[in-house]
Amino acid sequence: MSAIIASDLDRTLIYSAAALGLAMPDAEAPRLLCVETYERKPLSFMTETAAGLLAELAGKTTFVPTTTRTREQYGRIHLPGPAPEFAICANGGHLLVRGESDPDWQRTVTERLAAHCAPLDEIRAHLVRTADPAWLLKERAAEDLFAYLVVERPLLPDTWVKDLADWADERGWTVSLQGRKLYAVPKPLTKSAAVAEVARRTGASEILAAGDSLLDADLLLAADRGWRPGHGELADSGWQAPHVTALDERGVAAGEEIVRAFIRGAVPPPHAG
Questions:
Q1: Residue 268's pLDDT band (cuts 50, 70, 90)
Q2: Full strand arrangement of the beta sheet holding 146-151
Q3: Residue 196: enclosing H or E segment and its boundaries?
Q4: Quick check: helix, strand or coil at residue 262?
Q5: How far apart are CA 32 and CA 44, in angstroms?
Q6: pLDDT greater than 90 at residue 119
Q7: Which tops the pLDDT comparison, 273 or 157?
Q8: What pTM value is reported for the model?
Q9: pLDDT (tens digit, 9 = 90+) per residue, 186-213?
Q10: Is 96 exposed, middle or buried (0-12, 13-18, 19+ CB in 10 A)?
Q11: What is the pLDDT of residue 176?
Q12: In 3-state terms, what secondary structure has residue 172?
């Protein structure tokens, strides 16, 4: 039985210093491996144990990093183990095959969005027109596929978010608020659709997945088995599914436990004798 391992990255497998969640005394903290630098400074980490386990996992299975990051942002990450043959960026908008965006998949995504969704420019114009400068910090587009705002969360009115979600829904878009980022994403642009394409190409019979945010829900629902950490939007909202294990671990310890779960689920034990 062949399985593919599709995992979100930020706050699932890798963690910024602010998200590490080290609850133990300093002298008992795990050793950390830096897996991303940004502007010449260390940005994202795994425990050394998790890094070793991930290298083992990636050497024995089809491991597919699955992220909302742009290709440029993903390119800063150096995960342990062999370079993944497949990776998913921009929430499913780009399927990387040996590091290059697959043109057939790009074409498929473009056609789906054109057929079912209002154009990005219309969405961005509405965001800018209706957002209040009192709480809007930045407005950005990612890969010409979706938009996001960086906001002062305490000042952001719930009614504005709900009104935006209703407005976007009629135009084939969905809204997700995660920390200080408010995403507007076309409904067909999903991690699960891109993972299904990888499964088709590899002939995989099983999908194992992990994620922490609302943008990972479709990925977890499409998987045969899944795991979510004890932190993040899914945990905070009490999200659950029968085949998804809700872990107690939080922070970087959850990342380590997720890799252990992947190994237990995907790597057959050595034959005795």
A1: low
A2: 136-142, 146-151, 181-186, 173-178
A3: helix 191-202
A4: helix
A5: 10
A6: yes
A7: 157
A8: 0.93
A9: 999 999 999 999 999 999 999 999 999 9
A10: buried
A11: 87
A12: coil
Characterize the bridge pairing of strands 206-210 and 181-186: unpaired
What the block records as the tokens of 159 is 């009614």
How far are the Cα atoms of 42, 48, 68, 80 from residue 256, in angstroms, in the given order? 19, 9, 21, 13
Residue tagged 């609850």 (tokens): 23
The helix-helix angle for 120-130 and 158-169 (nearest 10°) equals 160
Strands of the chain (E only): list them.
3-7, 15-16, 32-38, 41-47, 62-65, 86-89, 94-97, 100-101, 136-142, 146-151, 173-178, 181-186, 206-210, 225-228, 244-246
CA-closest candidate to residue 190, choices 44, 2, 8, 5: 8
Identity of residue 75: G
Residue labelled with tokens 């004890």: 230
Cβ atoms within 10 Å of 240's Cβ, excluding its own? 13
**Is there a contact between 184 and 148 (Cβ–Cβ < 8 Å)?**
yes
Residue 75 phi/psi, 5-degree rounding, is: -65, -15
Element (H, E) at 260: helix 252-266
The residue whose two tokens read 């998987």 is: 223
In Å, how far from its chain's centre is CA 251? Answer: 15
Look at the block and give the residue holding tokens 């057939």: 104
CB 81 within 8 A of CB 59: yes
The residue-averaged pLDDT of 36-46 equals 98
